Amino acid sequence: MGDLVRTHKCNDLRQTDSGDQVTLMGWVLRRRDHGGVIFIDLRDRWGITQVVFNPEHNAEVHAKAHGLRSEWVLAIRGRVHNRPDGMINDKLATGSIEVMVDELRILNTSKTPPFPLDEETEVSDNLRLQYRYLDMRRPGMADNFIMRHKAAQAIRTFLNDENFLEIETPMLTRSTPEGARDYLVPSRVNAGKFYALPQSPQLFKQLLMVAGMDRYYQITKCFRDEDLRADRQPEFTHVDMELSFVNEEEIYHIGEEMMATLFRATHGLEIKTPFPRMSYDEAVHRFGTDRPDIRFGLELTDLTDIVKDASFKVFRQVVEKGGVVKAINAKGCATFSRKDLDDLTDFAGNYGAKGLAWVKVKADGEWQSPIAKFFKDEECAAMTAALQAEEGDLLLFQADNPAIVHQVLAEIRLELARRLALLDKNEFSFLWITDFPLVEYDQELKRHTSVHHPFTMPREEDIPLLDTEPAKVKSRAYDMVLNGTEIGGGSLRIHQKELQDKVFATLGIDEKEANDKFSFLLKALELGAPPHGGMAFGFDRLMMILLGRDTIRDVIAFPKTQKATCPLTEAPAPVARKQLTELYLRPDWEDKK
RNA sequence: GGGGUCGUAGUUCAGUUGGUUAGAAUGCCGGCCUGUCACGCCGGAGGUCGCGAGUUCGAGUCUCGUCGGCCCCGCCA
Question: Would you say the C-beta of A52 is within 7 Å of strand B?
Fold first, then answer.
């Protein structure tokens, strides 16, 4: 750069700057060489400015500019000119001016990039991640990270103003039972012992409440060693918070105001608060899921009572075995072709459906369907009434145990919404889900497991049920759902040892194990733990929705592939044998090959 | 652990029923061009068809395996 000092960014200059001497630095976005005059679009994080090399203005600099190529890094000094009449480019914020270059310094050259840095070309994920620093130069990507920064700042400002303290918690901590698989870190100075990377700062934030910090937050990394999805990465970011001496209402209020602040800061959008609330039972009953997308209808209708005595054996036997029969009325979808229905049946199969019964409602309410013949007229009429079916509708049935019926129909409901283009990315529909069960029975483990986590407070009036019918106990937990995605959740926590012991017992964690794994928490609960509760938001998912992207990878600077590798650094990678022996690790995978 | 899909020039893709020398666009290189803004015109280079077997007179194309990307199920308190 020599003695050159940047005076402006590439989005700064306007006609009011005409005549000024300026110095810009940035990358060559495009070069238009007319043999005579040469135009370069110079790009930086802020924008684009056209710079001009004219042989009549400065022959030496013009000659040098001939050699410029894409993504070379330049410093240019020159004078701002208003563009000639009719030459104004409306597509550029700086399109009414250009900089006539007096001095050109090539700060660095560049090889031809391995893929075009425009927004249009769809480049393979592998290549993008391998050259992530180039991928991030593309305008659409750069915007994501600018917005992510703004969002984080808005959240910090809001929580600071609400008297929260940002406090860091350890990345090297201990493995705890329950939950996801841990990432483990061997200890060099403690042979045979391991740290775990945190799945969340859950226990530390509770201890911060015991410490009297009263209101804590942290925007922090969490780690879970599970298989990846479009919206799941092994390391991801939580907006984590915890409050003392609060009830649900105060926590809902904080969550709602934080979202309102966030949408104002990022989209300039006023979202409506308070958010609607729905119990877990209602959500599952009406939508088949505890994270319903309420931007559209297509709700589930329970037909179990109507078909329980029908001559259709498939439905009747399901009901006899304690299953349910539910259906969705896909309004106006009787136009679906045989292939559409076959595709939908295959789709349902992904979620455990054994089939997908369908009915097309014709004129006069007549049923066109492979199963129509199994039902009496009054049964058809009762179902038609329950589903509010009209001519032109398509009815989709699912009969099985409730878990399958709900999952299948919930997914079909979403698939129908996608096919019918009912999902508006610019609509943001928030919802609280409340009154979750505390525990559910795990058939494989033959015991109850936490729906939220083991530190969740049961509803007080349900506590006696812990001994008799744990599955009926409701918890004081809540999820925030945005457009069908769970973006956050939390609970009031247990703050008394007796109750925590009781819940551990319900989960099949005996006194020895509880003391072994959680003695530090149990001790703290006996040393003046205040009532407390909180929540955590999945920051990456939130940004993904906010930016209308289809994958969480687009809002993470250096994400992993589906196999949890990093094409850029080639992590994970082998390590030297010495490193292993230092850690008291003796690999046997070579023998196993 | 399982299902699906994709892999051809630097990039994005096409490639018929298995049949001569694997194409297009863009990018790249060279030349021309003084008002473009996805500049234009002319010319050129560029391929281990992911990898390995197999079938066949002959494989980008068919079969099997394998590696990798993506989507999904399971898993993710």
Answer: yes
Q: Which residues contact A268 (CB under 8 A, 6 or more apart)?
A: none
Of the pLDDT bands very low, low, confident and very high (cuts 50, 70, 90), residue A593 is: very low
Please state the ipTM of this predicted complex: 0.93
pLDDT at A177 over 70: yes
* CA–CA distance, A290 with A302 (Å, rounded to integer): 17
Interval A541-563 mean pLDDT? 96
Residue A75 in contact with residue A28, Cβ under 8 Å? no
Is the CB of residue A203 less than 8 Å from the CB of residue A521? yes
Strand B, nucleotides < 7 Å from a protein CB: these are: 1, 10-13, 26-29, 32-40, 68-77
| Nearest nucleotide to A118, CA against C1' atoms | B38
- Cβ–Cβ < 8 Å for A200, A221: no
The two three-digit tokens of residue A110, written as one number = 């560049």
Which tens digit of pLDDT belongs to each residue from A75-115?
999 999 999 989 999 999 999 999 999 999 999 999 999 99
CA of A310 to C1' of B67 (A): 53
Q: Which nucleotide is closest to the Cα of A95 by its C1'? A: B37
Residue A450 beta carbon within 7 A of nucleic strand B: yes
Contact (CB, 8 A) for A450 and A442: no
Q: Which amino acid is at A593?
A: K
Which amino acid does the sequence have at A139? P
Q: How far apart are CA A258 and CA A157, in angstroms?
A: 10
Residues 66-105 of A with CB under 7 A from strand B: 69-70, 83-84, 87-89, 91-92, 95, 98
∠A404-A407-A410 over CA atoms, to 5°? 140
Backbone angles phi, psi at A135, to 5 degrees: -55, -40
List the A491 CA – B55 C1' distance (angstroms).
63
pTM of the predicted model as reported, rounded to 2 decimal places = 0.94
- Asked if residue A219 lies in contact with residue A239, where contact means CB atoms within 8 angstroms, the answer is yes
From the list A296, A327, A537, the residue with the least C-alpha distance to A422 is: A296
A412-467 pLDDT, tens digit each: 999 999 999 999 988 999 999 999 999 999 888 888 999 999 999 999 999 999 99
CA nearest neighbour of A436 among A558, A571, A284, A541: A284
> What residue type is A432 in one-letter code?
W
Q: Give the torsion through C-alpha atoms of A261, A264, A269, A273, to 10 deg.
A: 10
Question: How many angstroms separate the CA of A509 from the C1' of B27?
Answer: 62
A572 touches strand B (CB under 7 A): no
For chain A, give the mean pLDDT. 95
Gyration radius (Cα) of chain A, Å? 30
- For A95-112, b where at least 16 C-beta lie within 10 A, e where not — what string? bbbbbbbeebeeeeeeee
Average pLDDT over residues A401-408: 95
Amino acid at A576: A
Give the CA A118 to C1' B38 distance in Å. 10
Whether any strand B atom is under 7 angstroms from the Cβ of A273: the reply reads no
> Residues 497-516, chain A: which have Cβ under 7 A from strand B?
none
DSSP 8-state class, residue A47: -
